[in-house]
């Protein structure tokens, strides 16, 4: 692996999108921070909040096989739009492990809401307030609540690392889902240019004014964790944010 100074220099030399807010945090397999910018800044979480939902399961030790194999009903009231496939399928029940897999691999909003209903949103809200300074779980997916789900990278990257490093059954489900993530159009998008042949675990998120991505690039027992959050005011700025995230991912893939 190349010296991390290469990564820092290349990212510092990147052209930044104009008039946007962004945060970056990159750390290695020893949890050493390689690059950090605006990690205290709070953003609307978009679908990255789904990683925090998994952290609730991990921290509250709701990670036994009996729970993962529990079958939950999917009612017409649970069906929502946005990302996912459950809204178009004639399925009226699924195991918890399958809902977790769908929530992470294709960011299925209906699967997420079924889990939130089972766990009780209020429980997750209170837990997030007690555990974090600037991470909140406050609403169901596709719900126009006054309260929003929020994150910052200083806390979120600790959550990400803890989950991916977990050696229990939940960690296995999560790694399998994230390694088969349907959306790989941001941090992992340009890896063919570098010839990176390792494993990538990735989760993306987007809203009307946000483009986010978090990924682990792993090769030969070494890995780099990277997350980028962006907020913009105009739709015309979205593509600039995506390209910015893609370039960061390319730089990371080149250091292996």
UniProtKB/TrEMBL annotation:
Keywords: Hydrolase
Domain of life, source organism: Bacteria
Gene3D superfamilies membership: DD-peptidase/beta-lactamase superfamily (3.40.710.10)
Matching Pfam families: Beta-lactamase2
All residue ranges annotated as the Beta-lactamase class A catalytic domain in the record: 32-219
Alphabetized GO MF terms: beta-lactamase activity
GO biological process per UniProt: beta-lactam antibiotic catabolic process; response to antibiotic
Name of this chain's protein: Serine hydrolase
Species, as recorded: Companilactobacillus halodurans
């Amino acid at each position: 692996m190349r010296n991390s100074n290469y990564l820092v220099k290349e990212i510092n030399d990147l052209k930044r999108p104009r008039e946007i807010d962004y945060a970056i945090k990159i750390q290695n397999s020893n949890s050493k921070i390689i690059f950090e910018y605006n990690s205290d800044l709070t953003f609307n979480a978009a679908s990255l909040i789904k990683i925090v939902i998994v952290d609730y399961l991990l921290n509250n030790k709701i990670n036994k096989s009996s729970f993962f194999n529990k079958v939950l009903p999917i009612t017409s009231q649970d069906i929502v739009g946005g990302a996912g496939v459950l809204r178009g399928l004639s399925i009226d029940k699924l195991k918890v492990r399958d809902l977790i897999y769908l929530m992470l691999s294709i960011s299925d909003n209906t699967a997420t809401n079924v889990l939130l209903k089972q766990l009780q949103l209020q429980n997750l809200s209170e837990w997030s307030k007690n555990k974090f300074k600037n991470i909140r779980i406050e609403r169901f997916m596709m719900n126009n609540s006054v309260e929003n789900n929020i994150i910052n990278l200083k806390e979120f990257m600790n959550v990400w690392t803890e989950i991916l490093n977990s050696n229990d059954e939940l960690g296995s489900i999560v790694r399998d889902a994230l390694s088969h993530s349907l959306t790989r159009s941001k941090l992992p998008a340009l890896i063919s240019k570098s010839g990176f042949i390792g494993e990538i675990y990735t989760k993306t998120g987007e809203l009307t004014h946000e483009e986010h991505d978090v990924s682990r690039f792993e090769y030969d027992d070494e890995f780099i964790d990277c997350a980028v959050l962006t907020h913009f005011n105009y739709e015309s700025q979205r593509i600039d944010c995506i390209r910015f995230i893609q370039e960061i991912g390319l730089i990371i893939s080149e250091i292996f």
